[in-house]
Amino acid sequence: DARKDISPVPMTCRKGLSDYQALQDEIAVYTANALGVELGEDQLTKFSRRGTDNIEAYGSFLEGMRVLDAGGEDNVNGAISMLQRAIESDPDYPLGHWGLGYAYENLYYSKRDEDKDPAVLEKMYEHLRRASELDPSMAETNLGLGWYHFNKLDNGRAFDSFRKALELEPENFLVNRDVGAFLMSVGLYRQSVRHLKKAVKLSPRDPLPWCLIAQCLYFLGRCDNALEYVKKALAVNENNRTANFMCAVLLVLTRRLDEAGRRIEALEHLDFPSPTIDFLREVVAALRAGRGRPHDFESGQPRLSPQGTYIYLLFGMKDEALANIRAGIEGGLVEGMYLYSYPSLVKNPWYDELRDDPRFEAILAGQKEAYLRELKPLEKF
Predict the structure, then answer these.
(1) CB of 186 closer than 8 Å to CB of 375
(2) Which pTM was predicted?
C-alpha cells in the first residue's frame, strides 16, 4: 500500500528472555516509527500496552514487519506467514492482528484492479476487526477498516471508520494522511487538502502528502499550483517515482515543453515502462507541432483520468474529452478513486470550453445529484 512507508527493523527478535523489557520498549519505538508517530511518553505507554507476554509472538511480529518492509509480493507473502505465527502464539495480541491485517492490505493493493482478490480483502478485514476488538483505542486499525469499507464501495461506513481514527489520534501523521487520501479518493478535494497539509506539518520529510495535495489540485484543474507541490515532494526525495511522473505530466499540461522533455528523460533512469515514456514524448512532440490541432495518438490513448481528458482538450478534441469523462464515471472505482466527482467538474477551468455543450451539462447534472446524495454527508471532516 503506497500510503505507508515502514522503516527497517533490527533483528532483535533473537534476544533472550532476560532482554524482554528492553524488547517491549523497542517494539513500541519501532511500531511508532512504522506508523509515523512522534514518540513521547504517552505514545510509549500506548504501544507498550499493546504488547504481549509471549516472546515467540513478539519475535514473529518483529520478523514479519521486517520482511514486509522489504517489499515485493514474495516478501508480503513471507510476512503474512510470520505474522500468522505471531497470532498463533498469542491469539489475543492486538498488534499481531493489526500487522497481519496490514500485510493483507499490502497484498491486496499490490495487484491491478482486475487482479485483486476479494478473499484477500476479507482476510484484511478479519484481522483488523479482531485487533479493534482487542484494543478499541488503536486509531491505526480504524484506518485499515476505513480502506476495507471503501473498497467494498460503502463510503458511509468508511467515513465512520476514518472519523473514529481522527477522534482517537487527531495529531497522528498517518491518520491525517489517510483521512486526506480517503477524501481525495471519493472526490472531496478541498477537505482532503486540509488534512494533508496537517500531515505535511507533522512529517515534512514524507513526499507522499505533498504528492496527494498536488493530485487534489490537479483534479480541480489547478495544474500550476499542483506543480509547485510536486516540486516540494521532489525536494524531499528527488527519486520518488510518483513525484517524477506527476511532474512530467504537469509540465506537459502547463506547456513547459522543454522542461517536460528533460523530466521525461529522467523517467528512463527510474525504470518507467517504455509505453508511458513513449506516450509522453509523443504528446510533447505533437504540442510542439501545434496546440489545438486534433491528434491521432499512435503510442497509446490518453487515460480515463482527468490527465487524459486534459490532454484531449489540449488538442481541441472535445468529443473525445467528453467520452473520456463519461467512461471514467461509468468505470466507478478506477485505480482506487472516483475520477470525476462534482467538485472536480463544477469550477474546473479545463472544462470551460465544454460548458455550453448539452452533453457536459447532462454529465454535470448527474454528478451533482450523486454529490448531494453520496458526498455532501461526508464533508463533516
Answers:
(1) yes
(2) 0.84
